[in-house]
Amino acid sequence: MSKKQLYTLEYPVRCSPTILYEFLSTASGMQEWFADKVDERDGVFTFSWNGSSETAEQVESEEERFVRYHWSHAPKEEYFEFRIEKSEVTNQTILVIKDFAEKKEIKDQSMLWDYQVKDLFHRLGGA
């Protein structure tokens, strides 16, 4: 089994960090764009797609800055993270996604994130 690698994606967003953080850190927000159904209990999120579900623990977060999740089935050092940054040049909000994938799967995984983020932007009002 090959070791997964960390990769980073960045998306400029036209909305406030406060609103964006809600969509990244709450079950109701995540259900708007990330999964068909999302439940949360004691920091453990259950994400459901087409009848199958996965659980992830929200392991770390900082209001309006970042939220990190760890998939229950993944090795301890792997996670996926949403970070909210501001461009110093344009003052635009940037959504930074960090995730792990096998080298040969990074392109496909990136395309999946692109699709998910497009849905998020649609929910945010066409950002």
UniProtKB/TrEMBL annotation:
The START-like domain, residue ranges: 1-125
InterPro entries linked to this entry: START-like_dom_sf, START_2
Signal sequence bounds: none
Name assigned to this protein: START-like domain-containing protein
